[in-house]
Design a protein that fits this description.
Layout: H1 20-50, E1 52-56, E2 71-75, E3 89-93, H2 109-121, E4 131-138, E5 143-146, E6 153-155, E7 158-160, E8 176-179, E9 184-188, E10 212-213, E11 217-226, E12 232-233, H3 238-241
Length: 251
């Protein structure tokens, strides 16, 4: 003899329905992932704003130290808690008239929005057209001149050898004799024959115009991180400037 009626479904799930516990677990997982993503983006933004930022190298002015297409990490603790020193490689905003006007790179659609968002929070390197990268040669108050009878630079009366220069380049194709103003830096590229640096923006030939204000310095480039085959720390060549007297560390 058979009985009528349906047997209850094991586990409390109605026929044709969806498990309520499964939905709850899925929803909790989605919320947790969302929280982690938001926290990661927030942390990345904080790091980019106050600690580290990635930049893309668009020119050959710092060869062979940096090549076109390299990505570098810039520490924003310099200048600030950490003083600037001679030999530091620094990224700075155009102090005015150093760069030609370049149409901004525009990206449309969803991919453009995602790219701009990742750059904003610091997960992609900035492809900024208003920043430059050079090496600090003179600090505030330094007397920098070129060229000595041997064709090199002299800082505060001491001739220096520059091992970071691109092979085959002279220290400078221009003669100059300047004193770095207070609150400024004298900067030059490592590829001197392909670098329109402080030398080319100083019509007064005193250092007053060609020197870069410290307050436009974004930070010190500390490492090359891409491509991976070139990943390395960037040296400030402290021994090159060790015997130079005078001047002062700059913030």
């Amino acid at each position: 003899m058979t009985t009528s009626g349906a047997e209850p479904v094991a586990g409390g799930q109605e026929a044709g329905g969806t498990s309520t516990p499964a939905l709850a677990v899925f929803g909790a997982a989605v919320r947790e992932i969302g929280i982690v993503v938001v926290m990661a983006l927030g942390l990345s933004f904080v790091v980019k704003t106050w600690l580290l930022q990635a930049f893309f190298i668009p020119s050959g002015s710092m060869e062979d130290t940096l090549l076109v297409g390299d990505r570098v990490i810039v520490s924003k603790l310099t200048p600030g808690p950490v003083d600037l020193k001679r030999g530091d490689v620094v990224v700075f905003r155009d102090p005015g008239g150093w760069l030609d006007a370049v149409p901004p790179v525009t990206r449309s659609g969803v991919s453009g929005t995602i790219h701009d968002g990742l750059v904003f929070v610091g997960l992609l390197p900035a492809e900024s057209e208003d920043h430059l990268i050079k090496r600090v040669i003179g600090l505030p108050g330094d007397h920098v001149e070129c060229c000595t009878t041997e064709g090199g630079l002299m800082i505060n009366g001491v001739a220096i050898e520059e091992p970071y220069l691109k092979p085959g380049d002279d220290p400078s194709s221009l003669d100059f004799d300047i004193t770095v103003p207070a609150g400024h830096l004298w900067v030059m590229g490592d590829h001197r024959s392909d670098s329109e640096d402080s030398r080319f923006h100083d019509p007064s030939e005193t250092g007053r115009d060609g020197a870069v204000p410290i307050d436009v310095v974004t930070g010190r480039a500390v490492a090359t991180v891409w491509p991976l085959a070139r990943a390395d720390w960037l040296s400030a060549y402290a021994t090159t400037f060790a015997q130079v007297p005078g001047g002062r560390a700059a913030r």
